[in-house]
């Protein structure tokens, strides 16, 4: 499925070192008056190339914004203490042939491991001062591409899998994240800080993770672009897990083009997540996804609209008018809209008890988390049971009396993948095949669209990809099954 970009798709790197040095003095003064929060990756690379901006200046700009806004927004949980050194290194190593992410500051969700001086805690005090054995797979790819790790973004503690009662965007380490556009609006989770930071211009792009809605929901809620890749397209090695069936890692940014630029870097095979990434790596298109950012990308594409159960807007409402306008634009761009569609078994899929998702996730979480903890070089906790005990011993800091840890307790009571869990996994596969896949094939659809993230579980249980984006007043989530078959 092709994507439409709002930014320029072509840029040139200037090779004149002399010109770059000549412009350096002017750049120092010039950069302090420019709002880089609105710059795309292409804009930034233009500025790097013509000598009007350095990675150090860009990092300092983001640090200033973080120091100004983070006390209120709680988007960033920890900064990289070596970030200015890393920026200087990127400036020294920049070449005319450097890639799109060279020198670009990226924030990582706090569940993504970095083998440096930054903690990886999933928002929990239980993992504070633990030491991971190595960088996560996607972090190695980012560093190899020249990206700068700015720090860690806050998140819903334990990816919203500790309790049913903790609010979105809250963690013991990071506090409660706030939507930068409207404080009263739920920022969603669990990649809340990644979305808030992207929206507030605290980094050029961020990375989130998703098991069921955790990239898409906060991206939509904070009016940014989030891409949830097909499970296995990006490595989960070194990421605090919930489910190897459903976990995935993806970019969050202010434009589709920026999100795709990051996606191109983080996809691919990883021997530490071989089972998932080996098959998916074969469907990554040669040349990456950036090549599909074309103005005529929707030409001839069949896009289904899932009305029933999703479009609940009052007739004549602002939301209804916004979507009608958006669909008109899609038609003008050559898309063939197939309206009033329905997934026959959607009510079962969206009920985690009936679908089997709840039973499977609880067991998978305990197994996966215990395996992750066992690999840590240093850690005060080595199992889910240890974390439950830690929380009980630190009730005030972890707000156990208020939010509890009911999901943890339910997961701890599981005993591996038994008959019940295996039946649940089989049932979800059948529901996916009989539901979304059957609809897509029957109607010959390239993509399906809904107005929000309320259908995330449909994509979650099938491992399908999804993209959340916005246009003017519109916030929408776009589901691309074609990506799941042929490369995203």
UniProtKB/TrEMBL annotation:
Positions of the Amidase domain: 58-454
Pfam hit, one: Amidase
Highest rank taxon of the organism: Eukaryota
Annotated Gene3D superfamilies: Amidase signature (AS) domain (3.90.1300.10)
Keyword Signal among UniProt keywords: yes
Keyword terms, alphabetized: Signal
Signal sequence bounds: 1-19
InterPro entries given in the database record: Amidase_dom (IPR023631), AS_sf (IPR036928)
Protein name: Amidase domain-containing protein
